[in-house]
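This entry is listed as follows:

___
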Amino acid sequence: MNEPTTYGRSVGREVAAVEVHHPAPITPAHTAPLIPVQPGTIPAVASVVLPDGRVVTGYAIEPAKPEPVAAKPAVSRTAVNIALGGIGFGAVCGGLVLLTTFIAALAALIHQLIILAAVIFGGWVAVQIFSASGHGDGTTVHIRKAVFKRNNFHG
């Protein structure tokens, strides 16, 4: 039965050989006799009547109970405080960066407004000076030559 058997099969004009192998059971070298083990107690037999009238009888099997899950170790109060302190420190650092950025932007805005006011005021003064000579209603600016003699002002 362990020998391969060859069968002929026609393929077109040729006959192809097909080998069929029959598996052989493996027997261990040292066979120990099986000793039946009886359960300590005889389980109860349960019978169930199906809706079509058939009766199914069998042993009741208790469902497998999973191992109880080990309780997670409690997180120490110190570890929680350190974690929260780190988060708070990061938030404060970020807030300080935003605050300094805001202050720098506000200083730049004030600086630009001062320059804008100086340019506008300087332009207004220039218009008043240069347009006063042609019109009678303009602002008159008198420029005199001041003379200093021996630390005394002579105007």
Summary: The CA atoms of residues 6 and 19 lie 5 Å apart. The first strand starts at residue 5 and ends at 11. Residues 77-132 form the longest helix (56 residues).
